[in-house]
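Researcher: Please predict.
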Amino acid sequence: MSSPRYIGRFAPTPSGYLHFGSLLTAVASYLDAMHHQGCWLVRMEDLDTPRNIPGASDHILRTLRTYGLHWNGEVLRQSDRLQRYQQVIDQWLESGQAYYCDCPRREIIANNGVYPGTCRERQLPAAPDHAVRLRVTDQPLSFDDRLQGTITRNILQTSGDFIIRRRDGIIAYQLAVVIDDIDQGMTDIVRGADLLDSTPRQLWMYQLLRHPAPRYLHVPLIMRLDGEKLSKRLGSAPLEADQAVATLHRALRILTPDIPPELASAPVADQLEWAVRHWQPERLPQSRQILDPTMVQG
């Protein structure tokens, strides 16, 4: 039996740095992979080319090494795989599973964020400013998350036919990650709970591509005391190499609350070794977000 395969996902935008929120989900994915004697791969999700910063990917990779998160194999960069994504889009356009759309964003906003299917039967031709949408089922899709339990969504009712290529030509995240996960043989996905609502859309694409979906574990988002998410979009401070020992210990206090205090000054390799052996994700809070306990407790 082959080893389980996990993915560490990193979008090198807009700051060009790795932040604590991203580190936390990366560590959770790494711990789960190592605990199950699996492989941990790294992917740069750099499709949003106008926002990419030169050197950002290399900076992220250096930071991962500094924090002891060593990956298997070559780093996959989505910007190198545009032809592969377009191949799938073309197949779906040809079969009628996907279609062109010129609807403005305000129309979807006016419909409570659910695309009303305006272009479903219009048979618009290809055009530089047309998005591509994927037809979705009107049936509920369910999956069992290892922490959050059973999640059920009807995509047509919650979002409608969704975009797989934007009007500016950029491939949508939803499509790219599914194709990458299939091509890389991913068996397990560990990521933040903010992506829970994306999972049914990805399950639908797995069905269309006739490929089994991976197992999912969505860990809670860590919120600041003011209620804001710890993320690069909120301007969180970039991780500093000389603070790796203290910052990793802070992350492990959240993910593995029983970590011994004496490990606070231990090398990152020793901290990770302990955390891999004691990894119990089922002990994490079964919620989408929690306050940062390391800040609450001081």
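Model: Residues 253 and 259 are 6 Å apart (CA to CA).
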